Amino acid sequence: MSPAAATLLIALSVAPAPASAQVQAEPPGLPASAQLQASSAARPPLPDSSMSAASRALARGLPWRATRILDAVVRDPVARTPDAVYLAATAAARWGGWSAVERLLASEAWLDTLYGARGRVMLARAVLEQGRDSLALAHAALAADEAADPEVRGAALVVMARGLEGVDARDSAAGAWLRASRLLPGVSDWLRLRAAGVIADSAARWSTYASLSAPAARAHVPEIEAALREKLGDYLGAARAYEALGDRATALRLRLAAASDSTQRDSVRAALVDLVRRGGAGDARASVAVLDSAFGTLAPEDELVVARTASTAGLPARAVAGYGRAFEAGLGTPKDRFDRGAALVRLGRYAEAAAEFGRVPARDRLGGAAAYQRARALLRDGRDRTASKALHAVIARFPRDSAAAAPALVLLADLATDARKDAEARRLFGELAVRFPRSRFAPGARFRGALIALLQGHANTAAKELDALAASRYAGEEVLAATYWAGRAWEAAGDTSRALDRWRALVS
Asked: Closest by alpha carbon to 94, among 54, 62, 51?
């Protein structure tokens, strides 16, 4: 496509085609003065520095910066020339500022006389992107009539086609897509694919599919066909097409739309619940949405299935509701209680989360973790004193549970540090390191405990503890920090030789 396809640019975002079918092109650059009908000598001089700076920003892919540079120019009645307005609109179009494009261009008298109608195409696209299809059609029709350049005319036809789709004039939209495809050979297959997506007559549609030559375009035929069948009300045909594409949730939604009696609806409901249970996160979210919109509250056992999947599929509110209904019917396990508590935490409902974690029996394998999470929820709910007591209780009741007692010790040490009780914090860090030496929290606890000793003036003790940590095979990511701070501690203890040894080892 020629450099002028830069204009096709702004109009050729053919959403909602597949991502690979999106036509991306650069908006038009500033036209040469020879393209202007009025004499440059008859117009006020351009603010050359601003225009040049804005052009450079656009060339570097910084359209918002270009907009900021040109803002003062287009607000100045003297400096607001067609060149300045056109460049400002181009910049705004590149970052998707369609309301700004419309404000700049809507009242300009030169839209159909300068720049080969490219400004009119930009205005058409701007109002289209703001959802005003009929006005976009009017602007696009003017641009198509005025444009001499085939690519500009093609760009106008693309906007027309999208606008016609928006007002549900499918036959006219198909015609506009096909005419645009003849003017824009570089993207003709994608435009014909869009045309096929609105052709109701199956013979004409498949004839259009057959004309596609690009493998990438042909690969999208099944999804275009599936979407069109749904638009045409052929729900069963669309369901079969989506099943062939592997989109079971959409297929079931369409089968539900085609269901004619309660038996068929119940069958689809059971299939949706099964998909929630067995499908991936995407299928689960889509299936839950269909179940909730079509059936409302489900049977308690189905609510439990939905809740369990929702808790891992990024739907905490649905998980909380589903678990609640299942628990009311006497269903659920301690793990379900734990997961409902976790979902409540994600929703910021900390008091309820603490209560739910408290319902997990201490004898359950999740008992210790639930007690710790309850303490955390209390802390996040602003109940510091109650949370501190709960953390001490975790350590006392689950002394060997590294998933509960170890983080409880860390959190208590953090609280002591916040309260400036450094001696207590050091004691807690040391207790963690001794009781759970292989815990993932142990290296950090040893490091922070040693630093407290250094800050309290016990440099020799801190140096020895940091050396021991650096030499430990469990030091993990703390080894470098421990080596560096061991050098600092030996330096503070007056042993410069040992300090330099640590730092040389660190460098090597």
From this structure: 62
- Length of the chain as a residue count: 508
How many helices and strands (H and E) does the chain possess? 29, 0
**Peptide bond preceding 28: is omega within 30 degrees of 0, i.e. cis?**
no
Cβ proximity of 396 and 388 under 8 Å: no
Instruction: Look at the block and give the residue holding tokens 């929630």.
Output: 276
In angstroms, the CA 120 to CA 140 distance is: 7
Q: Would you say residue 16 has pLDDT above 80?
A: no
Distances (CA, A) of 374 to 233, 339, 353: 51, 12, 7
Residue 379 has pLDDT above 80, yes or no: yes
Backbone angles phi, psi at 495, to 5 degrees: -105, 80
Tokens 């609280």 found at: 415
The pair of three-digit structure tokens given for residue 432, joined into one six-digit string: 């963690």
Distance between start and end Cα atoms, the chain: 56
Read off the pLDDT of residues 186-241 as tens digits, 9 standing for 90 and up. Answer: 999 999 999 999 999 999 999 999 999 999 999 999 999 999 999 999 999 999 99
> Which amino acid, one-letter code, is at 322?
G
Instruction: Give residue 142's region: left, alpha or beta (phi > 0; psi -120 to 50).
Output: alpha
**Cβ contacts of 27 within 8 Å, gap of 6 or more:** 6, 7, 9, 10, 90, 93, 94, 122
Q: How far apart are CA 72 and CA 80, in angstroms?
A: 9
Q: Which amino acid is at 387?
A: A
- How far is CA 395 from each of CA 153, 287, 432, 444, 463, rounded to the nearest angstrom? 75, 42, 10, 19, 29
